[in-house]
């Protein structure tokens, strides 16, 4: 069953959760301290990294710096195969799907690695 779930995940373009965790860990280094302080990588699917920023002005910065950030991600986490950024503005909140959090996002790959 676990092999089948991993195969489906690959077909959908969703990497192993450890890839997104590595992106999150290296985020301050990749995005720079100032951008990282105002942003958070949320999900990774089919080469698109979805990022939440705390204000629309920071979304504009990411649009301007997309090529630079994608290149830095490719160098830092080559297995992530990130080719595009999708930026959404809104305040940080509880993790989706947790008590007090919003409904899970359909982009989510937060479910963990199948057994």
What labels describe this entry?
three-stranded mixed β-sheet, globular, GMP Synthetase, Chain A, domain 3, about 120 residues, 3 strands, 4 helices, alpha+beta
- Sheet with the most strands? 3 strands, mixed
Q: Provide the CATH architecture.
A: 2-Layer Sandwich
CATH class: Alpha Beta
What is the share of helical residues? 40-55%
Reading the helices and strands in chain order gives HHHEEHE
CATH topology, what is it called? GMP Synthetase, Chain A, domain 3
What assembly state would you assign to the polypeptide chains in this entry? Answer: single chain
Please state how the strands of the largest beta sheet are arranged side by side.
1-2-3
Structural class: alpha+beta
Number of H- or I-type helical stretches: 4
Radius of gyration: 14 Å
Number of E-type strands? 3
Please give a structural write-up.
The protein is an alpha+beta fold and 115 residues long. The chain has helices at residues 2-12, 17-31, 33-37, 56-76, and strands at 39-45, 48-53, 84-89. The protein has a single domain (2-89), classed as GMP Synthetase, Chain A, domain 3, CATH 3.30.300. The chain is built from 4 helices and 3 strands. Residues 95-115 have low confidence and may be disordered. It is globular.
Strand and helix layout:
Elements: H1 2-12, H2 17-31, H3 33-37, E1 39-45, E2 48-53, H4 56-76, E3 84-89
Parallel strand pairs: 2-3
Antiparallel strand pairs: 1-2
